[in-house]
Amino acid sequence: MKIGELANRSGLSAHTIRYYERIGLLPYAVRDRSSRRDYDASILVWIEFLGRLKTTGMPIREMLRYAALRERGPATAAERRALLEAHRKRVRAHVAELQACLLVLDIKIAGYAGPDQSLEHDGATLPERRRKPAGGRQSRAR
Question: Are 1 and 39 a contacting pair, CB within 8 Å?
Answer without folding.
Answer: yes
